[in-house]
Design brief:
Layout (H helix, E strand, L loop, with lengths): L1 H17 L2 H21 L1 H15 L1
Keywords: Membrane, Transmembrane, Transmembrane helix
């Protein structure tokens, strides 16, 4: 249980940093970028994107 106490204490302290509006904006931008990159890396979604682009080209 002492380990859990330390982990919860660290989470409570970090909550003050993460709850700030600037940090949330930075996290959101980072998550959006990484999400876009992940879609390109996953072969299944890459094929869907390539099909859509091919249909748009005609």
């Amino acid at each position: 249980m002492p380990l859990l106490d330390h982990a919860l204490y660290a989470l409570v302290i970090m909550h003050g940093f993460w709850a700030g509006p600037w940090m949330l904006i930075i996290i959101a931008l980072g998550a959006a970028y990484l999400g876009g990159r992940a879609v390109e890396w996953i072969p299944f979604t890459r094929r869907i994107i390539e099909r859509r682009e091919a249909e748009e080209r005609g």
